[in-house]
Amino acid sequence: MSNSNNLSLDKKNIDTILVLDFGSQYTQLIARRIRDLNVFSVILPWDVSTEKIKSLNPKGVILSGGPESVTESNTPRIPEIIFELDVPVLGICYGMQTLAEQFGGQVSSSKNKEFGHAQILLKKSSLLFDGFSSGSSIDVWMSHGDHVSTLPDQFSLIASTASAPIVAMEHLQKPIFALQFHPEVTHTKQGNTVLENFTFKICMCAAQWKMENLIEQRINEIKETVGDQKVLLGLSGGVDSSVTAMLLDQAIGKNLICVFVDNGLLRKNEAEDVENLFKDKMDLNLLVVDAKKAFYRHLKGISDPEQKRKIIGRTFIDIFDNEAAKLKDEINFLAQGTIYPDVIESSESESKEARVIKSHHNVGGLPDDMKMELVEPLRDLFKDEVRTMGSELGLPLEMLNRHPFPGPGLGVRILGEISQEKVLILQNADAIFIEELIKAGLYDHVSQAFCAFLPIKSVGVVGDERRYADVIAIRAVETVDFMTATWARLPYDFLAHVSNRIVNELEGVSRVVYDISSKPPATIEWE
User: Fold this and answer.
1) Cα distance between residue 310 and residue 303, in whole Å
2) Is 93 annotated in the active site?
3) Which of 93, 203, 205, 258 is catalytic?
4) Quick check: is 184 catalytic?
């Protein structure tokens, strides 16, 4: 497979903050907070190559938290290249602890682990806390089991709490800072001020990451990469592929050929809705392919979630190759709506010790012998950045504000083997849930909501008859960045109404359960 054309800003011409990832659940949130300041940020694993770090030429580095303990052997450490860059460094949580240990300080395991709200007391003035007076207190969010017990040489104390005497520190000569608390989470009041101070007053970054400039640049990059050749895009109707389509349409017009593949794993009436919007209203060059039978045939007997994802990805590309072969002109490029979290959570990590959460059909399921070269203009954008871009490009708000839908579709919301009968039941159950959320004015108050088909049956009673039928789980979460999420506290009366409708209207369902798992430890999707 050809390497992806990583259409992105020239890193030599834009100020960049590198977020070095030690495995924290908040790493992407740190990067998002920096981008909210209109400064570009990049996440790399702590053990990435020296050459990769040098190539970014960052103006500053933030060390994330992580699940490991500095007190144990063979745990992650800051690579020496970070200090050789001679740029400002900010360590957060584990980042602070390994920073202290590597500079000769001491880190101890706490008898009482500290998770939740805390109040820190500023002991001295610091540029990192510019705007706060010495002696003032700040409400912060803690999440740690270890703490720095002895300051390293050449470091001074900035702040402390009752249970953690060293909660913020800075180097006496170099712009190196460290925090035990998490400034990136909303629970830390004025945490953004701390990140602003680091980004602008310490790293001296310029605010160059602006959407209007980004759109123009991406369009120019697409023109330069593609020229007058044709591009094939798998249009799913989701936000990511739709924004990709609009960018490509502005760049190359009718040289973009959009293919909507009805894989039989879509939401109810999805094919009709996509054709109506993009072919009839947006006038895109759209082909609709009914491939339900092919997907069902390849998925028959398969229950492992990773196998299902890869089969869906391979079948998807096979369909594309077949459609491309039918076209008169040669197709050299395949466009995808891959976004930054897809890349980070997939097996395409640059870490030597990558922990794969899941493969993503955009980045982890494509065959090595694929004939087309990839174009992924959203590859370094977060979901909310993609939505902002879509709004600027004129996409309707009801489409942009639609909840995310996984690339493999209902294939990862039907646990176990997939069949057309299960798909139909799940489509109808999901449509009922979403319809009721919209009616109740709750749809925009949750970030993602859907139904999952469970691989079990349950006894029920409908009317005077016993029913031994399938179980549907309903899931609704609230999140900012989709890297962490809490389950939505939907009203009991609402949940009861949805449950009654699903069981009464769908003969194949005997029971409805509500998923009350947050991320972590669970993921948002069930597979």
Assistant:
1) 12
2) yes
3) 93
4) yes
8 Å CB contact between 360 and 238: no
Distance (Å, whole) CA 282 – CA 500:
39
| Radius of gyration of the chain, Cα coordinates, nearest whole angstrom | 25
Residue 241 CB-half CA count within 13 A: 25
Task: Name the residue type at position 299.
Answer: L
Q: For 320-348, how does the pLDDT look when each residue is reduced to its tens digit (9 = 90+)?
A: 778 777 876 778 888 988 888 878 766 44
Residues sharing a CB contact under 8 Å with residue 67, sequence separation 6 or more, in sequence order:
23, 24, 94
**Distance, CA of 184 to CA of 361 (rounded, Å):** 30
101 in catalytic set: no
Dihedral (CA of 413, 382, 16, 190) sign: negative
- Residue 515 φ then ψ, to 5°: -80, 115
pLDDT tens string 381-429: 988 899 999 999 988 888 888 898 888 999 999 999 999 999 999 999 9
What is the torsion angle, in degrees rounded to the nearest 10, for the CA atoms of residue 430, residue 431, residue 437 and residue 439? -160
Domain ranges of the chain: 16-202, 211-400, 419-514
Do the two domains 16-202 and 419-514 of this chain adopt the same fold?
no
Are the CB atoms for 64 and 29 separated by under 8 Å?
no
- The encoded tokens of residue 517 equal 């798992």
pTM of the model: 0.74
Superfamily, domain 211-400: HUPs (3.40.50.620)
For domain 16-202, which architecture applies? Answer: 3-Layer(aba) Sandwich (3.40)
Query: Which is the catalytic residue, given 114, 184, 221, 376?
Result: 184
Q: Which of 144, 182, 360, 361 is catalytic?
A: 182
State the Cα–Cα distance between residues 483 and 29, nearest whole angstrom.
Answer: 8
The C-alpha angle 238, 243, 247, rounded to 5 degrees, equals 155
Query: In the structure, what pLDDT confidence band is assigned to residue 370 with cuts at 50, 70 and 90?
Result: low
Assign domain 419-514 one CATH number from 3.10.100.10, 3.30.300.10, 3.40.50.720, 3.40.50.1820: 3.30.300.10
